[in-house]
Amino acid sequence: MAGARRAAVVGIGQTEFSKNSGRSELRLAAEAVRAAIADAGLTPADIDGTVTFTQDTNDELALARAVGIEEIRWASRTPFGGGGASATVEHAAAAVLSGMANAVVVYRAFNERSGHRFGQPKEQVTSPAYNFYFPYGLDAPTKIYALWFQRYMHVYGLTNADFGLYSVVARRHAATNPNAWFHGRPITLADHQNSRWIVEPILRLLDCCQESDGGVALVVTTEERARDLRQKLVTIEAATQSNLIGGDVMFNYYHPDIARFPEAEHSARTLYQQTGLSPDDIDVALLYENFSPIVFYLLEAYGFCGPGEARDFIADGNIGLDGKIPVNTHGGLLGEAYIHGVNNILEAVRQLRGTAANQVPDARRVLAATGRSAVILGTE
Amino acid sequence: MPRVIHPVPDRDDAFFWEAVRAGRLVARECSACGRIAHPPAPMCAACGGGEWVERELSGRGTVHSWIVSRHPSQPDDAPRIVVLVDLAEGVRLVSNLREIDPADVRNGMAVTVFFDEVDGCWLPQFRPQRAAAGQAGGA
Ligand SMILES: [Zn+2]
């Protein structure tokens, strides 16, 4: 998008991340949104757009009533759960760059531990699309994803201990992030290998993201308006989604090579083309990891290493804070919290402002990617 | 016996489950261009056709990937091996692999379909393909 008008993230806000928030999901959303608006130096009346997930339970008008947003001119939602986490920023940018809205708040808030838990096995088929999976015992995200991770392990010769290499890094980063649920609690590879099997022989407990309660929000407006606001400028350099024919959000079994992640490869190509950047230009990568193997797929899809090289790349220290490409500097969804990936975008903003708990010196280009949506944020 | 979540067929996939109850593994092929759609779709993505012919599949294939599925909160339920099978016809489908110890499962091993009623639900299941002699295999 070089030369084009850009949108900017001007405010971020969140609640604490916990296992039992003790309050409603709407209350969490309202707190996070209020905090993000205040962080931007705006008032609720300045907000005229909202973006959240289709899965979010918080109604736009209920949120507006709680927060004091007077008129919503743009309300949109992103599909595919966490896969749409970075697409929220794409929606918000589209809204403000088109003039359809002046200032958009992105929010995601839930009691995903104390309330409805995503990871629980399903009890019944709720869509015909599940007919070809649930009856065979593929009834929970761990198992559903593990069936493609096993192919990756087979093709590249990995064992579960290799995935633990990432978990150790995530928990090391979380250990020094006061916001993280696992603050002060690093793990060793032995801890990982001693954690119980969730899906044998692919995933152990410490390969899985947390279940968390909490809310996060961010405010997006145009770069021109952002320059008049109080925070250091953080621009949206590029944002995209990739949802390919033949793909599936969770049951992504039908691409010819499921040891790769074609949706992420497409997103990477789009972002690098739009920005003229290459993997070497990215200073920090926030990679959505519902399960540790996804980091391996995304490192390869975004070209930080070649196909099948992620294990050695991680083992050689490349994703640590002083590595070639620091990954999930806040501890990721394993270490910080599982706010469905939107907490990763907040971390991207903090890295660019220079206010992260585990600050990477002079971070100027930060990638926040899920499997099927991604943004590159930047600063001057 | 494992607890099975029963499929709830709709107009686009009822044919598959009816065939399974009759001991046949089938897919729908576009009557205009011959493309197979699995999982089933209401329209052919290649040509826009909406007419289908049922094609009986060989039921022979290889293991593309596999996991052991346990029910975390009902540990008494028997674990099941879930497999992603590459069928000879180029169709990939999810099923279970039976009559084998998880320690002996290998990617790429040859498997053959059979049909079984599990927890009141007729499902296509797979077992290792055996050398010429021995079981006839299939139902
Ligand atoms: Zn056709």
Characterization of the model:
Chain A is built from 12 helices and 11 strands. Chain A has a single domain (7-116, 209-378), classed as Peroxisomal Thiolase, Chain A, domain 1, CATH 3.40.47.10. In chain A, helix 1 (25-40) packs across helix 2 and helix 8 packs across helix 9 (293-301). Chain A has helices spanning 25-40, 60-67, 87-97, 141-156, 160-175, 189-194, 223-226, 262-275, 293-301, 310-315, 332-335, 342-353, and strands at 7-14, 49-53, 74-78, 104-111, 197-199, 203-204, 213-222, 235-241, 284-287, 365-369, 373-378. By secondary structure, chain A is of the alpha/beta class. Chain A is globular and about 55 Å long. The model of chain A has no long low-confidence stretch (mean pLDDT 96). Chain A is 32% helix and 17% strand. In chain A, strand 10 (365-369) and strand 11 form a beta hairpin. A 9-stranded mixed sheet of chain A has the order 3-2-4-7-1-8-11-10-9, sandwiched between helices. Chain A has a two-stranded antiparallel ribbon with strand order 5-6. Chain B is mainly β and 139 residues long. Chain B folds into 2 domains: 11-56, no CATH class; 58-130, OB fold (Dihydrolipoamide Acetyltransferase, E2P) (Beta Barrel). Chain B has 1 helix and 8 strands, in the order H-E-E-E-E-E-E-E-E. The radius of gyration of chain B is 16 Å and the shape is globular. The chains are: A alpha/beta (380), B mainly beta (139). The interface between A and B is medium-sized, with 35 and 35 residues.
